Structure formats: structure tokens, C-alpha cells
Amino acid sequence: NHQSFFILTGIPGMPEKNLWMALPLCLLYSTTILGNVTILVVIKVEQSLHEPMYYFLAMLAATDLSLSLSSMPTMVSVHWFNWRSITFNVCLIQMFFIHTFGGVESGVLVAMTFDRFVAIRFPLRYATILTHSVISKIAAAVLLRSVVTVLPVPFLTKRLPFCHSNVLSHAYCLHQDAMRLACADTSVNSIYGLLAVILIIVLDALILLGVLDIASQEERLKGLNTCLSHICAVMLFYVPLIGMTLIHGHGKHLSPVIHTFMANIYLLLPPVLNPIVYSVRTKQI
Fold first, then answer.
1. Can you give the CATH number for the domain in which 88 is found?
2. For residues 214 and 210, which has the higher predicted lDDT (pLDDT)?
């Protein structure tokens, strides 16, 4: 028996249609859209910013914007209008976009690390190594990898029967959350989900560490100075993500508020703070 719809949940213990929740959300989404659109416009208009580093920053801004817009419709509908039901297929589409752009963000952060590494290690050959063609190929590879990895997830979820509860634990659809409600063996979904995380997140984290490892002590210090904003962005993305993954896997005894809080931080914080971090640290912008 398939559920034709799911019920989304706001913050546990708070009334759904809550002004105190609606206002910060409105502020967060406005700041995200304004900040990231500003970065995209500035990079497009300002000729001096037509360099590899800023192209990658534009990719990050576009990804942050997409990630925010993936969760925004249901977040706003739950907290502003108390519309909590979402059809099964719309839930699968949202799940696909949220997980895909999460993967793209991870890939873009690695590409930005590679860019800084080349700039510090091979300053004279920087422009010849990172040509427009190479940057386009990196962008296409990052997007394609994420799409191909996440694409099976909605189909694997669609084949599951849902006959118990249809109440999700967030105001948007995530794979681990929907899978939890199935009344059948979900080991294929669990294994594939784990493989996807290893293929994207773990691999990227290892590349990041590897790049830092290759750099010499002096390069690392110089790198830390020029890459401080980038390190902040990496921490902003990976720390909540790892926290959310651990809580989903091992935090059954924790309060639902903590689950919601971690998932919301993972989705809402990087897109808001990345433009601020880069604008403050990057004089040209």
C-alpha cells in the first residue's frame, strides 16, 4: 500500500503557524538570495573578477542559491501557512534536488581547494593550468557526478511500500527520513545511501586533506592565510553534515528538536553565511 502523500513537520513542540519561526526564516531566505545573487552579479559585471578563483566562487553562490530554493517552498508553506501535506512524487523530486545540490556543493568546495592549491604551488602557471575550458569541465564533472549518484535515490524510495505512518520529521524531504517510514526491508536504500555519501562526501573530504598534505609547511601557512574564507566555508558545510549524519544514524534517543535543528543548520546556514564570509575576507568583492 503506497502513501499518496506525506505530512511535513515543523519544529517539534512549537505551534506550526508560528510568527517567531516565520520571521527568521524570511530573513534567512532573503539574506541567502540577496547575498548569493549579489556575488553572481558582481562577478559577472566586474571585469577584474574574471579569474578562476571567482568563477569557482560564482559556482558556489549558484549552488547555495539552488540548495536554498530546493527547501524553501515546503519550509515556507509549513511555517507560514501551515500547509503540511506534500504528494509522494513532489517529495521525491524535492529529495532529489536537495541531495544533488548538497553533492554539488561538496564538489565545488573541492574544486575551490584545488584552485587555491594551484595558485600557491604554481603561481606562474596558474592561468595556463586553469583555463576556461578546464574550469568548464570541472563544473560539468561536479554537476554530473552528483546527478548520476543521487538519481537512483528517488527510484529506490518509490518502490518501497509505506503503510505505517506518513509523518516526516522535517519541513522538507530527505532520503533517510522517508526511508525510515517504509514497512519493508530498506537495506538496499541504506547501502546505496551510504555508498553515495562515501562517493561524494568522504571522497571529497579525503581530497581536501590530501591537498593540504601535499603542500609544504610554508605553502600551508601562506595557503591558510589566503584560504581562511575557504576553510570557513568547508567547516560550515561539513560540520553540520557530519553532525546530521551521526544523529540520524545513532541519535535515536535524542530529542526530535536536535534532529530538526541539525538538519536545518545543514540546509540553511552555509548558503546564508558563505557570501558573508567571502565578502568580508575577499577585498576585491
1. 1.20.1070.10
2. 210
pTM: 0.88
pLDDT of 1 reads 45
Write out the residue range of the structural domain in which residue 215 sits: 5-281
269 and 233 in contact (C-beta within 8 Å)? no
- CA–CA separation, 189 vs 160, rounded Å? 9
Cell numbers standing for residue 222: 601562506
Whether the CB-CB separation of 61 and 275 falls below 8 Å is answered with: yes
The domain total for the chain is: 1
Q: Which residue has the cell 543521487?
A: 150
